[in-house]
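Contributing new records

If you add data, match the layout below exactly. Sequence lines come first and carry their own label; structure lines follow with theirs. Keep one chain per record. Anything else will be rejected by the validation script.
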Amino acid sequence: MLKVIGGEFRGRNLYSVPGEDTRPPLARVRAAVANVLVEYIDDARILDLFAGTGSYSIELLSRGASFATCIDKSPKAVEIIRKNVSSLGLTGRLRVICGDSIRLIGTMDNGMENYRIVIVAPPYFAGLDKAAMDLLGKSRLVEPAGIVVLQQHKKEPHAEAYGNLRLRKTYAYGETKISTYLVSQQVQ
């Protein structure tokens, strides 16, 4: 059973998507990511691409983030995120969009909304990690003082930079690799 690890909703159960198509991050990975993001969470707006169950966003909302947008193209995943939002009383704090994360990066990049935390956790070995990061590196979706978290399989390559995003640090948790990127201060 998937549970919220810390904060306001600690110990609460989360619904998960049945089957093998959606893999929620392990509890220890979610906890580690929340710890890495501790200085960014308070009152943050989150963009969660390839959101699956929405567990990353829910974990961060539980720890003090103010708002999250979760995007997933699977109607089953979107239904599960909505169930989690309803069961935790997060209506108004979490927006769910059923759509292609890659396409929506371009659509959302109009300068009207930006996010302090962006999570990119696509299916492994599908090339969506690089596509999403390349687009985010050219977009205005990440606040100038924001951070991007890229979740990949440990054998997938990651770059030192994607456009104006520069690698901060990479962490390994079993088969999962987490890389964090900051907006380059030279590029505005």
